# Entry
Amino acid sequence: MTNSDGGGPRSRGMWRRETAITATAFALCLLGGVLHVDDTASAPPAAAYLIAVVSCAVLPLRHRAPLAALAATTASGMLVPPLGLLLTPLIVAPAVIAAYAYALTVRTERRAESAVLLLSALLLVAPTPFFEHLSGQDVSRMGAVAAFPVVAGVLGHSTRNRRAYLAAVEERARRAEETRDSEARHRVAEERVRIARELHDLVAHQITLANAQATVAAHLFDARPEQTRTSLHELVETTGHALDELRATVGLLRQSGDAAAPAEPAPGLSDLPTLLESFRRAGLKVSVCHEGTARPLPPGVDLTAYRIVQEALTNVTKHAGTSSARVRLAWNRDRVTVTVTDDGGGARTAPATGRGASATADRAPGYGLIGMRERATAVGGHLSAGSRPDGGFLVSAQLPLPPAKDTTPMPDGATPPEQRTADGRTGDAETGGAP
# Structure
């Protein structure tokens, strides 16, 4: 909807309303000009047309200059008796409308507003005694003429107060809504801080205690078996309490109506063959290359590696415009490097937004790289992504590994140190090539 300056529907509606009000005031003024003392009527004289034109011409200005409009219509009404016309409420209709607009628009003290309205009413009837011999009927007629502007002013003042009250109610409701939203966000933030503090205290205390008990058990394993058994029992109790408290704390984050989460293990690199097979069924040829000796990963790191491969291959399928991709898992002493590349057959430069990667020119920015980077950072790793010099796109994540002495070889069929090609054949890592 355009504003009044643009000639839109709102301005056209205001113009129609102003035209209707002015035309009505003009008709009433002319009707008052044809009345006589004996209640007879005749054709409106030229003086009636003059007063109607002058007084109605200023009505459209009553909102911008209400005091000037009221003064002009009052002055026009004062000319009624000198021009030989009968002073009636009809002929001063423009002054009544101007009085209503003045009380509705002007923001002054109530005493000043009342004084202006009373002065206008007195000025309208002031010339009459000098040109007529007053009778009882004349007095009642002048009383009605003086009362109409005052009543119009009272109505205008009441309307203004009602509008101000409704606006104040709406403003209070809006502020109350904002206050409730702000208070809700504040309480959520406080609850998050409280839960985070409880989780920190729980992990710091219980894990430290469990570590101390495990150290004692390891130290006394050969010399004092009975005491070792006691320490192990205490360790079991400690870890059990830690799990119970952790479950209770995390349960605060779940709504009362939420269904219990399925008790399935989180996915990891052991599920990589199934994941790659799903992409192959979708038409993406994926080859896998393993370098180094595969080792079991901590649950968090294992899930992060799996999700990074999943998200990167999803981005290749959605944005790369290519039918092949390569996954490389490089196992080092203290880290595993997960790399996903494609040949960049499509026009896109990045699968999603993130630092060092630009969004496509014709797609809205996404959060794929941001999510992968946050996952890697959460487990103490690092992720980089960007276009390759020879074309295509590369996502590489370095994730920390536990010391090699604390690990054992991976189960068969999980992540073997060999390359798995798109058609299911296997070979040495060197034949697949690192991207």
Notes: The CA atoms of residues 239 and 428 lie 43 Å apart. The two ends are 57 Å apart (CA to CA).
